[in-house]
Write a structure and sequence with these properties.
Layout (H helix, E strand, L loop, with lengths): L4 E4 L14 H12 L3 E5 L4 H11 L4 E5 L4 E5 L7 E6 L5 H10 L4 E6 L3 E4 L11 E4 L13 E4 L5 H11 L4 E5 L4 E6 L4 H12 L6 E5 L5 H6 L2 E4 L5 H6 L2 E2 L8 H6 L4
Parallel strand pairs: 1-2, 1-12, 2-3, 7-8, 12-13, 13-14
Antiparallel strand pairs: 3-4, 4-5, 6-7, 6-9, 9-11, 10-11
GO molecular function, one term: hydrolase activity
InterPro entries: HAD-like_sf (IPR036412), HAD_sf (IPR023214)
Pfam families: Hydrolase_3
C-alpha cells in the first residue's frame, strides 16, 4: 500500500467554531496514522498555536506546516519542546506594513516570533493570537525579517479587505484574507501548498497520493495542489471551486468520511 500525504487544515476543518475537537475526528485521524499515512497539520496558525492541537490529536511525530507555509517543523518527542524547525521562510515586512498603514491607520498589526508569540502595535482581541504578546512601536515591527504579518481591522468586511489589498498592489508578498477582516501576509510565493510540496518530495510521496482538506481562502492553493482536494461543506464558492469534491461541514464532522476513505 502506498503511503499517502494527508494535509489537514485545523480551524473549520478539524476544530469547530466553538474550539472543540470531536471524538470522531480525533479517532479518524488516529486511524489514518495507524495505517501508516503521513498526517500533516497545515494551518495559518503559528507554531505555538499548532502544538496543542497536535497533542489533542495524539500526533507526536511527523511534520507540521505552520504560518501558511512559512514554517515547517518536524515533531519529535525526544527533543526539547517536542519539535525541531526544518524550514523557515522570512521577508522584510516594512514595505507592506507601510503601504497597509496608509490605508488602514487604525488597524492592529502583529508579526510572529517563532515559538514565542507576537510583537504588535496594539493588543488583539483576547484569544485571537497565542503565545506571548509584546506591544511595540509600529516601526519596530520591521526591525528584522519575519515569517508572517497579521493585520486585523474589525470595522471592515473581508470583501473590503480583499479589494484594498488588490488596489494597493501587494505584489512582493503573498497574502490571504480570512473569514473576518483579517489578513495574513507571508513571503512571496509561500503558501501551504509550497510547504507541502517540499515535504512531498522529501517523503517520496507520489502526487496522486496526496489529499488535502480545508475550508478557507488560505486553503485554495493547497486544495489545487493535492491529488485529491476536499473542501468542507461550509466553505465559500471560491474554496469549493478549487477542490475536487465537497464533504460535510465542520459541525457534521465532514473530514471524517474523507479520512475513513483512505486505503488501509
Amino acid at each position: 500500500m502506498s503511503r499517502y500525504l494527508v494535509a489537514l487544515d485545523i480551524d473549520g476543518t478539524l476544530i469547530g467554531y466553538d474550539g472543540g475537537l470531536s471524538p470522531a475526528v480525533r479517532d479518524a485521524v488516529a486511524d489514518v496514522q495507524a495505517a501508516g499515512h503521513h498526517v500533516v497539520l497545515s494551518s495559518g496558525r503559528s507554531l505555538i498555536a499548532m502544538t496543542p492541537v497536535a497533542e489533542l490529536l495524539g500526533i507526536t511525530t511527523g511534520w507540521m506546516v505552520c504560518s501558511n507555509g512559512a514554517v515547517t517543523v518536524r515533531l519529535d518527542p525526544d527533543v526539547p519542546n517536542g519539535w525541531q524547525l526544518d524550514e523557515v521562510r522570512t521577508f522584510d515586512p516594512g514595505p507592506a506594513l507601510r503601504l497597509l498603514r496608509e490605508e488602514l491607520p487604525d488597524a492592529r498589526y502583529a508579526v510572529e516570533d517563532i515559538g514565542i508569540g507576537f510583537r504588535m502595535n496594539a493588543l488583539f482581541p483576547e484569544g485571537e493570537l497565542d503565545g506571548e504578546h509584546q506591544v511595540v512601536d509600529f516601526e519596530q515591527l520591521w526591525s528584522r525579517e519575519v515569517t508572517r504579518v497579521v493585520i486585523r481591522s474589525p470595522e471592515r468586511t473581508p470583501e473590503e479587505f480583499s479589494e484594498m489589498a488588490a488596489r494597493i498592489g501587494l505584489g512582493d508578498v503573498t497574502y490571504a484574507v480570512g473569514w473576518t477582516a483579517w489578513m495574513d501576509v507571508a513571503p512571496k510565493g509561500v503558501t501551504k501548498a509550497s510547504g507541502l510540496e517540499r515535504l512531498r518530495e522529501r517523503l517520496g510521496v507520489d502526487r496522486a497520493a496526496t489529499v488535502a482538506v480545508g475550508d478557507g481562502r488560505n486553503d485554495v492553493d493547497m486544495l489545487r495542489w493535492a491529488g485529491r482536494g476536499v473542501a468542507m461543506g461550509h466553505a465559500d464558492d471560491v474554496v469549493r471551486a478549487a477542490a475536487d469534491e465537497v464533504t460535510g461541514t465542520v459541525d457534521e464532522d465532514g473530514v471524517v468520511p474523507v479520512l475513513l476513505s483512505l486505503p488501509r
